[in-house]
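Fold it.
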Amino acid sequence: MNGEDEFDLTGEWSGIYNYPSLLPPNSFEASIRDAGGVITGVIRQPGEIIEPPGIHQHAVIEGRREGSRVHWIKIYDDLNRAPPRYEGRVQPGGDEIAGEWHHPGDWSGTFLMVRARKAKAAEVRKVSEEIEAR
């Protein structure tokens, strides 16, 4: 894997983001496309604190990757709120991103995302190669 491929974020991600207070964290799923550092994607997450149970939210993300650094905005379907900004770093291996989110003039917190499918695909490929080698 060359340096640029290590940080290609294309794929399916699972994550969690934390609030700045005693509120519980919220999980999310993301489908991301990384086209040479231009980041686009779709986020699906359970409703936040004010929504009734069972409600899910959707958002799109738009941003950039520059080496291991990433930043994007998250635009909810509900356009009545300012989009939060996310900034983070892709960890070595390219399957984890950790960072902070900010609501301008409001809240901020941390987030963590993990890309499990890329790791699973590598495991399947490795097992397949071992079986074929026998």
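The helical segments are 3-6, 116-133.
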